[in-house]
Amino acid sequence: MLKKSLFTLLSLLLTFGILAACSNEEAATDPSSDPSTEDSGEAVTITTARVLDDGTVFKDGEDVHDNVVTRWAEEELGIKFVTEWTQPNDEQFNTQLRLMMSSREKLPDVFLVSNNNIKADLIQSGLVMSIDEAIEEHATPRVKELFERFPEAFYPSTNEDAERFGVPRYSGGNGSDTLLWIRQDWLDKFDLEAPETLEELEHIMDVFVNEDPNESGRDDTIGITFAAGDEGFRGGNIADSSWVFGAFGDYVPGNWSQADDGSLVYGSIQPNVKDGLSKINEWYESGYLSTDFAILSAGDAQESFISGRSGIMAAPPWAHGYPIGEIAQVVPDAVVKPFPHVSGPNGEAGRRGEGLIVGSFLFNREFEHMDKFFEYWDAILGYTLGESEHFPHGLFEGYDYVMQDGEPVYDIAQFEEITGEDHVDPGRYFLPTNIPTIPYEMYGLLEEFHDTGRDPVNGYEANLAGREKDYIHAAAIVNKQNEIRIVNEFSGPPTDTMSSRSEHLERLEDELFVDIIYGNKPLDAFDQFVEDWLSSGGEQVTQEVNEWYESVR
Asked: Which residues form the signal peptide (predicted)?
C-alpha cells in the first residue's frame, strides 16, 4: 500500500509538473507575459491563479486571459494580470496549491484561498508574505476603514505572532443565513396565519401532516424538511435546523460562541441544545419529520419539499430559485413564501450566522507590487460602495448595461432587445471571482428597496433591485433578524487535539443527538454526553481554541 501511495503521489507531482511546464512555456511564448513591460513603464505584471467554474461566461472572443476586465486593468490602472493556471473547483485548486507547496514551486503573486488548513500551512511554509506593512503604506482610507470595521476577518490568516498574511475576501455577512419558506397555498387552504412562535408553527405542521393538504387521499405529507446527513446538526443551510436550538438560547450545534466571561464554548454541549433536542424529538414522535432525516443529505432532503410532500423548509434567500423554485415543475400551483424565524417559549430566536469571509488573498513572499494590488482593490470596491470614478453607470457598457438616449438601461430583457446580445456578468472576470462584497451591505440595500420602493441610483444597486420579488422580500426578512445571528467565533485551522480527536467527538455527538430524537435514549443521556465529550478530548480542544482566540485578538 505504501509503495502504491508513493507511486500515486509521484504521478500526481509529475502530472502537475508537466502542466506547469506547459503553462510556463505558453507564458514564455506569449508576448503579453513578457516581464520587460514593467521596465518600460507600460504596465506592472501581476500573476495569479483562480477557480474558473461553469458560472463564468465570457463573450465570444474573450477568455480568462483577455477580456474586458483585464483590458480595463491594464489601460486604466497599469496592471497586466497573467493567469498562470485555473482549476474548475476549490478541491482541485487546493490540490494544486498543496503540490506546489510541497515541491517549493514558485507561487503566483496573488491568489485566493478559502481552506483554513491550507492557509495555515502556507503561512507556516514561509512562501507567503506578511501584509501588515503593506496595509499601512498602501491601503486607501476606505479599504483601511473596512479592515478596521471587521478585524475578525483577518483571524484565519493571522499567525501566532499576530502578523496578518491575507487580505479578506468578504462574504455577504448574512448572505447564507436562513429563514423559513412555507407553502402559502397550504396556509390559505386552512385559513392559517403566519407563525410567530414555535407553538404556532407546531399547529401549522400538525395541519400539514394530518389534514391532507395535497388532497392525495393518502398519509404522505410531513410538516417540515430537515437534513442531518451531511454534518449532523453542525452546519448546512438547506433544510437547516439551527433555529430550533436558537429558540431556546444563544448556542447552536457545531459553533464556538462567546460565553458570559468572553471565552469561547462549544455550542453542542450547552443546555439550550438539550432543550432543542427535546423539541425535535416531540416533532419526530408527532410525525412531523421524515423518518430518515438523520441520514439524508441536504440534496436528498430537499426533495420532500420540491416534490410537494413537505410544507416548511429553512433555507437562505438565494434558495428561492434553486432548490425551492424547482417545486413549480412538480406542483405548478404551489405558492411558496418567505417568513421570519419563530421565537421560543421565552421569546428568544436564533439562527446560525454565516462567516465574514469566503477566503483570503495570499501573496507570494517575493511580490513587490502591493501598492498596485490595493489600487486595484480600491477601484473595484468603489463600485460596490457606489463611489466609483471608474464605473459611474455599471461595470462595462454592452455587458451589464447599455446606454439609450443618454440613460443606462439595466433591465436584462431590455438590454438584450436593444443590443441583440446576451447579458453577461463581467463581475465574474475580476480577480476575486466577483465584485467585492461588504458584510450586510447587499441585504441592507435589498431591505431598503423592499420597504421603500426607491429606485436604484447606480449599476450595483440596479443589479440588486432587478431581482425576483420573493428573493428581495426574503433578504429583507433575514436582514431584519440580524440580531438573532449566532456566529462561529472560531475560524482558525484545526487545533492539535481537533486533528486527532474530532472524528471521535463528532461521532459521539451525532449518535447521541439522533438517539435522543428517535427516542432510543432518554433526554437525560445528553448530560452524560457532555461529560464524555469533555473527557474524550473536548476539554483540551476548548483550551486550545481559546489560546488561538487570545492570540489572534
From this structure: 1-20
